[in-house]
């Protein structure tokens, strides 16, 4: 965490300018990152870098740079920044070899970073339906419109009864429920007019985020209200999206890069200028609140209209694609390199974790010592006689306790006669740990034990009582 915010952020700054620098210069940055990873995990110098990266969930710097630069380029394209784009893009038609396969992990890590032109062409050809504008959405609006606020009323509606009680205080209000939905291949936005019993569902571009879907549902509801001629003067919009509400009610431009937020403000402004008023309410989803359930079902049902081409995708929604692509590159690199380096760790950590196992340490034990001990065991690079001999630090790999000639981790933890009594305790703790979960037997293999966080405490206790330092 400290490394990412204090050290790596400095590398990110102006990465676009130095990324094609000499490899030996870029390596200097890698050295700093590797040092940081060793400090985080308390690993020995001999530990392979690829294992360190996976354990801490911090990608190789070059992949991180690619992600940062792609995000930056996306922004340039979205802002239609001709100043920059005209300098980078060729005047004539694009050369054929520019289109097609883009980057692979092997090339990247051997120093073939794609040119800026290539990155921009790739992004332009992949994210066709992006919202582009020469101006920031904020600057397109009149000043009084920017400050148009939409009132959020109470924050405590948790159930159908509470909502009904609350709505009694607003008897004349016209209520519209909105909801957005995102599945693997479709994104939809829907609203439900509880007075006219009308639902409307719109299909959106599958690249839209759930946030965009929720905002679009609110926008459509507001445009619908603007069209109603003989309507009351007060409207209530009920949504289950916290993030949409906080974006709409927040007037700071820093937080609102999604242009839909400004479209919503515009609709609110139109309503207000004709003497009508809108208020927002947050309602929890899946709590049996009838209107919300109807909107939710509508959003999951068959769309009434297809807006996937007309609604342009905010560029920030593509960030997930970029992150995903970076992960895939990293994974393919790890799959290759772990055949050669860090094979012990690979046996323990078979898939890429989303977060490090020590993230939000829920294990409640002495943090630092615990994390470093377990990390070292998982890396297989620790102070066992066998490993120290391999590093030429000592000459004899025999066990100092029982004189077994090859004292590796397996021996010290599972076999050494000296610790038979402690091992009984270990087995006991492992059984208790496995009983907490259903249907699993205590593993007999050390690597299997080290692959599951529920056994970490037991193994840590054993190590501190026997070998003490690992
Ligand atoms: Zn021994």
TrEMBL record:
Record domain RNase H type-1: where: 170-304
SUPFAM superfamilies for the chain: Ribonuclease H-like (SSF53098)
CDD domains: Rnase_HI_RT_non_LTR
Domain of life (superkingdom): Eukaryota
Gene3D superfamilies: Ribonuclease H-like superfamily/Ribonuclease H
One Pfam family named in its UniProt record: RNase_H
Family matches, as InterPro entries: RNaseH-like_sf, RNaseH_domain, RNaseH_sf
Listed name of the protein: RNase H type-1 domain-containing protein
Species name: Loxostege sticticalis (Beet webworm moth)
């Amino acid at each position: 965490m400290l490394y990412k915010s204090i050290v790596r952020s400095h590398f990110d700054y102006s990465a676009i300018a130095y990324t094609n620098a000499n490899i030996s210069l870029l390596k200097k940055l890698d050295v700093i990152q590797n040092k940081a990873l060793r400090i985080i995990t308390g690993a020995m110098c001999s530990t392979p870098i690829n294992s360190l990266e996976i354990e801490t969930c911090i990608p190789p710097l070059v992949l991180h740079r690619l992600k940062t630069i792609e995000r930056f380029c996306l922004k340039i394209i979205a802002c239609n920044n001709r100043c920059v784009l005209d300098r980078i893009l060729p005047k004539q038609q694009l050369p054929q070899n520019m289109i097609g396969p883009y980057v692979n992990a092997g090339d990247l890590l051997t120093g073939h970073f794609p040119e800026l032109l290539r990155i921009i062409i790739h992004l332009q050809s992949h994210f066709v339906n992006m919202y582009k504008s020469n101006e920031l959405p904020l600057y397109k609006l009149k000043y009084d419109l920017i400050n148009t606020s939409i009132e959020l009323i109470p924050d405590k509606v948790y159930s159908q009864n509470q909502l009904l009680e609350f709505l009694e205080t607003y008897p004349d209000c016209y209520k519209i429920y909105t909801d957005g939905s995102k599945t693997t291949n479709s994104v939809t936005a829907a609203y439900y007019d509880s007075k006219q019993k009308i639902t409307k569902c719109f299909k959106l571009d599958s690249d839209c985020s759930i946030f965009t879907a929720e905002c679009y549902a609110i926008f459509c509801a507001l445009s619908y209200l603007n069209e109603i001629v003989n309507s009351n003067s007060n409207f209530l919009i009920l949504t289950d999206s916290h993030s949409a509400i906080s974006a709409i009610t927040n007037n700071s431009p820093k937080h609102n890069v999604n242009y839909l937020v400004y479209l919503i403000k515009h609709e609110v402004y139109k309503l207000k200028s004709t003497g009508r008023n809108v208020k927002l309410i947050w309602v929890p989803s899946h709590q049996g609140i009838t209107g919300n359930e109807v909107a939710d079902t509508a959003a999951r049902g068959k769309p009434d209209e297809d807006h996937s081409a007309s609604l342009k995708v905010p560029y920030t929604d593509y960030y997930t694609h970029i992150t995903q692509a970076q992960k895939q590159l990293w994974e393919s690199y790890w799959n290759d390199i772990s055949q050669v380096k860090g094979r012990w760790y690979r046996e323990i950590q078979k898939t890429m974790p989303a977060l490090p196992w020590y993230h939000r340490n829920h294990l409640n034990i002495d943090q630092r010592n615990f994390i470093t001990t377990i990390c070292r065991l998982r890396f297989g690079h620790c102070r066992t006689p066998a490993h120290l001999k391999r590093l030429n630090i000592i000459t004899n790999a025999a066990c100092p306790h029982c004189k077994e000639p090859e004292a590796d981790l397996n021996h010290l933890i599972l076999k050494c006669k000296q610790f038979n009594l402690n091992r009984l305790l270990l087995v006991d703790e492992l059984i208790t740990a496995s009983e907490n979960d259903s249907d699993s037997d205590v593993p007999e293999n050390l690597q299997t034990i080290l692959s599951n966080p529920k056994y970490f405490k037991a193994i840590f206790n054993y190590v501190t009582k026997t070998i003490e330092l690992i």
